Amino acid sequence: MKPLFEEREVEIEQVDVDVPEIDTMDVEDVARRKAWDSYNKAVEKGFISEGDMLIVEDTGFYVESLGGFPGAEAAYFSRRAGVGKLLPLLEDEENRKAYFKTALGVFKNGEVSIFSGKLNGRVPEKIRGDSHDYLPYNSFFILNQREEDKSLAEKSMHKNKNFHRTKSTIKFLNWLK
Questions:
Q1: DSSP string over 110-134
Q2: Is 133 a catalytic residue?
Q3: What is the mean pLDDT of the chain?
């Protein structure tokens, strides 16, 4: 997000507040609650002042044939079961459509606004490339529908305008101006 903010000359400052996440599959619901709770805690701790704007982000990984699982619980599933447990759930499954969805929750003037972005693709038959701890599903996601296409882990990690986080951030920045 930082380069997009810098391009538009919008200054941001990161504050670290620890708030519990609600248990839901919808990243928009998580971002909405997290924005509200984070704002209140950041004001209480003196990290920001009342009237300041606060932005939070949440990303989920949704697999169509699994009813959207793991969804907003993707990070939890990855930590607890291991992201490698996803492929056996899709064994013999023809529908391998999946998507990433990012929701920015913005607390401003006592209200929370949500800005979402989505990246469509599919889950390959096997792990493709090396994932990072902070991007565990990149080796489980191909942007296009052809099996021979590269996973996100196999591609250069240059973010582009079609990525889910970029889309949500641009929507927010357009709203902000």
A1: TEEEEEEEEEEEE--SS--S--BTT
A2: no
A3: 87
pLDDT for 159 beyond 60: no
| Catalytic choice (58, 92, 130, 149) | 58
70-71 and 111-122 as β-strands: parallel, antiparallel, unpaired?
unpaired
User: Domain holding 126: CATH number?
Assistant: 3.90.950.10
DSSP codes of every residue in 36-78: HHHHHHHHHTTSS-TT--EEEEEEEEEEGGGTTTEETTHHHHH
| Residue 97 domain boundaries | 2-176
Inform me whether the pLDDT recorded for 146 exceeds 70: no
The total number of structural domains that make up the chain: 1
Q: What is the rounded distance in angstroms from the CA atom of residue 163 to the CA atom of residue 166?
A: 5
pLDDT digits (tens, 9 = 90+) for 164-173: 888 999 999 9
CA distances from 164 to 45, 52, 78 (A): 31, 26, 19
First CA to last CA distance, the chain: 16
